[in-house]
């Protein structure tokens, strides 16, 4: 209060030109608060009952009252300022008051009648108070420095604003200040959020502390209860010791006997325990040795199995070379050499009748070549021509050899990758795995997922059963053609040739249901083989039906299986263009001998190689085809020609080329090589190019068909205009009937 009543000191000239505005008021309030706190602390140590000196009252009355800052229209600078001399006198008086109030033990200063100890205490207290006051003064100086810097900054900004020549510059200064204010506002918000997070953290910590206190209290209560129990037990033991109960003591002889028996039992148990420990160590060593031996035997067995597989693959290769040599020798000798020809024929018959299962019992056969593969197809088709049967046998041996050699290196890691897959979803990894082929145990699940992706907008609950009911209630016009084609479906597959098999009936139901699903197509030759492949893999009628729907209605272009087969003809022309681009040397050779590839390739694209490739390569093509679409069919068609390009170029006769093209797809045995050609050597293969080629050839083909229709119409009009004419010298049918 004394500091607040003092007059405002004269400001230096350096501060008189600075307009502190509200900042000056804040600085004065800060000074008054700090000094007021100091006065309160100084007077707080004064003994009760001791009042201030009466000499202070006149001095307070002589001090002029400070100007009223809250009065409107008045400026503190306009109030009368005291002279420097009176200000100095007032400051000295105030300092003396503070010094007298600083010593609570000596209200009138240090007196002579006090002891040395009291003086030391008073001086120490004075030093402490002066240290605190010095610290407060330093803080005040820091605040004043910051306030001065802010005022100078404000002055510079105001000067720049006033010195700006144009409103544009002033507006830019205002915008700069607005940006600074916005930045400060964001910092304030960030600090507020940090404060809130700290408050939440503090509350959580407080809750944890409260829980820990409760836990500690529970532990203390538990400890107290235990202490009480211990105390009670101690008291009871003391009482029992002081006043033992009246019990009849056991005879000393019985107690000694019991003790001896217990000691003997303990000794026997120790001996048994030591024996068991010794036996356990021995058994552990035996188990360790047996485990080492078992591991060595397992490693040796695996090495022998690998060696056996390698030897069996080599045996297949040697046998295929032997058969190929016999065939070439037969062609070289010819029919005229009677005895040699008969000997060669006998050797070929023995080679064709030999099977791996008829080998000696001592030979290690891991996977002999069976008559049928895992999907029921004949491994060696029973061709009527002996040369074709010989080639088929050679091809089977080569396929088996490649399978044995690639099992550990390729197929086993591929199976592990498929087994590690969880839920299926379209991705680049799935695309690469599908191109490499799906293992047999995973193929039904993967195909169902692929079909569901294609036809999920067409599927409905009970749709297949509804179509079956319709086909039973009403006979479809295509039913007769379906019955004719059932017996022609895969004659080399035991599932469709065995009379007791259920596959033909299931195939009939699938095809009839599809004829009602898509009445615009009804049935087309080739759909029976597509549905049969789906049945062999999926083994469910409804799944095979939806697979057929996915191929015909979503994967293949429209009109692919229509009556005109328009899209199929377009794809044949597209394939010719792609062959000319990718394999120009081969196409030049075929063009030289006037070979039309559409006689061979039309069925490839129509049934997606169902009659052309062996089953393991065929299903690998279908794995990628169901995911990527028709582009895969073109890739593999080009790859097949690339695979056999050298063999075709050796042939120099058109008839020989046609005969070779009839069965050359069955000679492909290396699926990995074919896949690499299809997806690596045939690149780049953009889908945009395929669409453009299809569009161009479709327009040309439609124009050609339209022209043919016009020629047909003109011919019919001409014949109708001429009427039925009878050449001279010929008798009409009517005249013949009139004769008796």
Automatic annotation (TrEMBL):
<dbReference type="GO" id="GO:0005829">
    <property type="term" value="C:cytosol"/>
</dbReference>
<dbReference type="GO" id="GO:0005096">
    <property type="term" value="F:GTPase activator activity"/>
</dbReference>
<keyword id="KW-0965">Cell junction</keyword>
<dbReference type="GO" id="GO:0031267">
    <property type="term" value="F:small GTPase binding"/>
</dbReference>
<dbReference type="Pfam" id="PF00566">
    <property type="entry name" value="RabGAP-TBC"/>
</dbReference>
<keyword id="KW-0175">Coiled coil</keyword>
<dbReference type="InterPro" id="IPR050302">
    <property type="entry name" value="Rab_GAP_TBC_domain"/>
</dbReference>
<feature type="region of interest" description="Disordered">
    <location>
        <begin position="36"/>
        <end position="87"/>
    </location>
</feature>
<protein>
    <submittedName>
        <fullName>TBC1 domain family member 2A isoform X4</fullName>
    </submittedName>
</protein>
<feature type="compositionally biased region" description="Acidic residues">
    <location>
        <begin position="731"/>
        <end position="740"/>
    </location>
</feature>
<feature type="region of interest" description="Disordered">
    <location>
        <begin position="720"/>
        <end position="740"/>
    </location>
</feature>
<dbReference type="GO" id="GO:0070161">
    <property type="term" value="C:anchoring junction"/>
</dbReference>
<keyword id="KW-0343">GTPase activation</keyword>
<dbReference type="GO" id="GO:0031410">
    <property type="term" value="C:cytoplasmic vesicle"/>
</dbReference>
<feature type="domain" description="Rab-GAP TBC">
    <location>
        <begin position="437"/>
        <end position="629"/>
    </location>
</feature>
<dbReference type="InterPro" id="IPR035969">
    <property type="entry name" value="Rab-GAP_TBC_sf"/>
</dbReference>
<dbReference type="InterPro" id="IPR000195">
    <property type="entry name" value="Rab-GAP-TBC_dom"/>
</dbReference>
<feature type="coiled-coil region">
    <location>
        <begin position="113"/>
        <end position="286"/>
    </location>
</feature>
């Amino acid at each position: 209060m004394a500091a607040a009543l003092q007059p405002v000191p004269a400001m230096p000239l350096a501060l008189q030109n600075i307009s502190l505005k509200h900042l000056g008021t804040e600085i004065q309030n800060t000074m008054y608060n700090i000094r007021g706190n100091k006065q309160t602390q100084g007077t707080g140590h004064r003994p009760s009952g001791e009042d201030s000196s009466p000499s202070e009252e006149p001095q307070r009355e002589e001090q002029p009252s400070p100007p009223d800052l809250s009065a409107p229209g008045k400026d503190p600078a306009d109030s009368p300022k005291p002279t420097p001399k009176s200000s100095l006198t007032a400051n000295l008086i105030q300092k003396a008051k503070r010094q007298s109030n600083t010593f609570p033990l000596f209200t009138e200063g240090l007196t002579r009648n006090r002891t040395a100890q009291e003086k030391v205490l008073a001086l120490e207290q004075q030093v402490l108070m002066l240290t605190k006051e010095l610290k407060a003064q330093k803080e005040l100086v820091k605040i004043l420095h910051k306030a001065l810097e802010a005022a100078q900054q404000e002055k510079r900004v105001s000067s720049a604003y006033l010195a700006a020549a144009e409103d544009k510059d002033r507006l830019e200064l205002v915008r700069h200040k607005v940006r600074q204010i916005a930045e400060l506002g964001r910092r304030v918000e960030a600090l507020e959020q940090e404060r809130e997070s700290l408050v939440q953290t503090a509350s959580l910590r407080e809750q944890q502390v409260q829980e820990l206190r409760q836990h500690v209290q529970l532990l203390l209560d538990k400890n107290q209860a235990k202490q009480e129990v211990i105390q009670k037990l101690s008291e009871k033991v003391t009482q029992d010791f002081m006043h033992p109960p009246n019990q009849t003591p056991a005879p000393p002889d019985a107690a000694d006997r019991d003790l001896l028996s217990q000691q003997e039992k303990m000794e026997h148990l120790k001996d048994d325990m030591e024996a068991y420990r010794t036996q356990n160590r021995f058994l552990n060593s035996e188990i360790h040795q047996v485990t080492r031996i078992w591991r060595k035997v397992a490693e040796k067995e695996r090495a022998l199995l690998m060696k056996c597989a390698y030897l069996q693959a080599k045996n297949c290769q040697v046998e295929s070379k032997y058969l190929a040599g016999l065939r070439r020798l037969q062609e070289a000798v010819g029919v005229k050499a009677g005895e040699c020809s008969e000997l060669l024929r006998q050797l070929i018959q023995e080679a064709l009748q030999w099977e791996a299962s008829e080998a000696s019992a001592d030979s290690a056969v891991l996977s002999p070549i069976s008559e049928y593969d895992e999907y029921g197809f004949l491994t060696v088709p029973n061709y009527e021509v002996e040369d074709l049967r010989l080639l088929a046998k050679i091809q089977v041996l080569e396929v088996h050899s490649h399978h044995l050699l690639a099992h550990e290196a390729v197929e086993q890691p591929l199976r592990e990758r498929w087994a590690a897959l969880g839920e299926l979803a379209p991705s680049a990894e799935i695309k690469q795995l599908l191109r490499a082929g799906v293992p047999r145990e995973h193929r039904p699940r993967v195909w169902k997922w692929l079909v569901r992706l294609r036809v999920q907008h067409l599927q409905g609950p009970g749709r297949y059963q509804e179509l079956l009911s319709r086909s039973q209630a009403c006979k479809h016009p295509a039913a007769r053609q379906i019955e004719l084609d059932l017996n022609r479906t895969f004659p080399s597959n035991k599932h469709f040739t065995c009379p007791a098999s259920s596959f033909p009936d299931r195939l009939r139901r699938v095809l009839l249901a599809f004829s009602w699903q898509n009445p615009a197509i009804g049935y087309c030759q080739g759909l029976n083989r597509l549905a049969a492949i789906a049945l062999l893999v999926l083994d469910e009628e409804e799944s095979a039906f939806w697979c057929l729907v996915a191929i015909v209605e979503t994967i293949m272009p429209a009109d692919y299986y229509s009556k005109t087969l328009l899209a199929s003809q377009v794809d044949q022309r597209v394939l010719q263009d792609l062959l000319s681009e990718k394999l120009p040397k081969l196409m030049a050779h075929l063009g030289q001998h006037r070979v039309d590839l559409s006689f061979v390739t039309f069925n490839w694209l129509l049934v997606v190689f169902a009659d052309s490739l062996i089953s393991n390569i065929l299903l690998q093509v279908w794995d990628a085809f169901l995911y990527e679409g028709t582009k895969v069919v073109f890739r593999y068609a080009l790859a097949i020609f690339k695979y056999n390009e050298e063999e075709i170029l050796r042939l120099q006769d058109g008839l020989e080329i046609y005969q070779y093209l009839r069965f050359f797809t069955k000679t492909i045995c290396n699926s990995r090589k074919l896949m690499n050609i299809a997806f690596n050597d045939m690149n780049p293969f953009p889908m945009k190019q395929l669409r453009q080629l299809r569009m161009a050839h479709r327009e040309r083909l439609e124009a050609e068909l339209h022209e043919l229709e016009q020629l047909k119409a003109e011919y019919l009009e001409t014949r109708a205009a001429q009427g039925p004419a009878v050449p001279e010298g010929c008798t009409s049918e009517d005249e013949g009937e009139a004769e008796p």
